[in-house]
Amino acid sequence: MTLTSRDTPGFGGARVSVAAEPARGVRAYGQVLRLPGARTFVAAGILARFPRATLSLGIILLVSAATGSFALAGLVVAPLVGGMAIAAPLWSSRMDRHGQARVILVSLGCLVLAASGFLSLVLTGAPLWTWLVAAFVTGASTPDLTSAVRARWTVLAPASQRTAALALETIADQMVFIAGPPAITAVAAAVDPAVAMLGSLGLGVVGGVWLASQRGTQPASTPRGARRGLVLPPLGVIPVAIACIALGGVFGSFDVSLVGWAELSERPWLAGPAFSALAVAIAIGSIITGARAWKLSPAARYIGFAALAAVVAVGLPLAQGSVPALFGVIMLLGLAVSPVMVSGILVASARAPEGRVTETLAYPTAAMSLGVPIGGVIAGAALDATGPATALVTIAVSLTLAAAIAAVGEGLLRVAQRR
What we know:
Blueprint: E1 5-9, E2 15-19, H1 27-33, H2 38-48, H3 50-67, H4 70-98, H5 100-123, H6 128-140, H7 145-156, H8 162-190, H9 193-212, H10 238-264, H11 271-291, H12 298-313, H13 315-319, H14 323-350, H15 357-386, H16 388-418
């Protein structure tokens, strides 16, 4: 139970409510949402996530409708995802330096122009190479507003409430991934893929502008002369960031494997519920993660739960012959993966140098984005070669790699810190 609270100045002049004793269980979420400005930027952040969560699917629907080729659609998506992964830390670094509000508005303007140009090229039948260039520019113009929202929690939430706050952000992510893909698919089928893509972009712009208008909760900007020109990740976040590439591969492998499984079993409609089952389980797991008081460090939780999730994922190929059994394993997998995702963000937030919070929080997200197509390609090759069972095995392999990379990276980091 919270005994007393007081308001103290936060970064950038925000008022931070510091609880004498953090709430436990689900009450922890109510406590962090009562911090000044929290509910507003959480709501804005949910809308702002839509382009990053649905642009890839929107482009697949648009290009496949225009060309009749899903292979070509996948080819066009690759530079989009690459552009997102490369540019996310750069946009976030500029947010730390110049303030979130200014950079968010500039990046959204670039995104609208780039996405409009891409749509025009596809709809007018321009050469393929122009689609690839425009897709990369669109991805590079997409800011990582998830990291911007998470950085605001470092302003508002005391360390004792940080797990609940960042678990809440993982839940918000899953809400977008649960609602976004079905919505954009439905609009594309009922109206037009271009309209669906523009609708997702419009929601993102509304959310981004709303987020930018909330200057009181953004982290303070770093003085111009205090930063070097080259943007490199802080040493402490490198192990978890590299591990997040493998974690992104989990989701890329899952998407391709489950689509292949559903189609080969002549029940293609089951792929959508499978994706939703994973997202719902991750959301539930995130609620549990944020409500608990953990004795293990975030880095230890990342490694331990990634290893546990790998063990659970071994059950996927074994359960593929039974729909109820497979969905049960998927739910268990989501519950095991959710602490990995929350812990990775906690590690990054705890190791962010002063004045580089938004940038540092962008690295795990960018790394996961980079890993998604890698996992998809590997799972696709396995699917074509031997079928869905082998493709499903790649999920467990990706999780094992995530745990191993994080463990080795943490060990090397400790050795470097002792010298």
